[in-house]
Specification:
about 210 residues, 11 helices, Cyt_P450_sf
Length: about 210
């Protein structure tokens, strides 16, 4: 599946997803303002945690045109983020010492590996079924997402791509939203005219990135 989908990871193709990510970023700024900047003193909060919520919501918007809702909830409401963090720590360790994977996750007597991310598989499968049945209310044909690209590839190359390959692809994608933050950070630092209106205690508004 890697070869046929590569065309959708070019700069021009990824830039077509900007309407989806722009919406998430505007909501990110809005959440920070309404939750933590409603008065002159402001409220302390964990910015890194909210960056994680934003990154995961982007990870939902880009493939499926629908956010996961972590910013709306203001918390890791289904524990997917914490499970993914544990899994990534595990993969970092076995990447350095591959033998550990056979002793832990692939142990035939007692598995001691990371928790399964079955929730991600369910999310990908539900969106795939709804989209193929024409029952996905979040999909805008004018702004095709990665899931729609995968479905088109499946229709053109049924011998190479099936539903299982699509679900597996996005299970891997959703495990690592850190790359989505790279997109988010790039947008913040390069977008002309960005104004998040993160007011300082003096009431001033930071200048937009240039």
């Amino acid at each position: 599946m890697k070869r046929p989908i590569a065309q959708y990871y070019t700069a021009s193709s990824v830039s077509a997803l900007e309407p989806l990510t722009d919406k998430v970023l505007r909501e990110f700024c809005g959440h920070l303002e309404t939750r933590f900047m409603g008065d002159k003193e402001g409220k302390p909060f964990d910015f890194g945690e909210w960056i994680s919520f934003c990154s995961w919501d982007i990870s939902g918007a880009a493939p499926f045109s629908r956010q996961f809702g972590y910013m709306d909830q203001g918390r890791d409401y289904d524990h997917t983020i914490s499970i993914a963090d544990v899994s990534l720590d595990y993969f970092a360790a076995v990447g350095q010492i591959p033998l550990l994977d056979f002793l832990l996750d692939k142990n035939p007597v007692m598995r001691v590996g990371p928790p399964h991310l079955s929730n991600l598989t369910r999310i990908a499968l539900e969106h795939l079924i709804a989209r193929q049945q024409g029952q996905d209310p979040d999909f805008d044909p004018n702004v095709p997402d990665f899931l729609q690209h995968c479905i088109e590839i499946k229709q053109k190359n049924p011998e190479l791509v099936d539903d299982g390959a699509i679900v597996k692809r996005y299970h891997v994608e959703l495990e690592d939203p850190a790359k989505e933050w790279k997109v988010t950070n790039s947008w913040f630092t390069r977008q002309e005219g960005l104004r998040c209106r993160m007011r300082l205690r003096s009431g001033q508004t930071p200048k937009s990135a240039s």
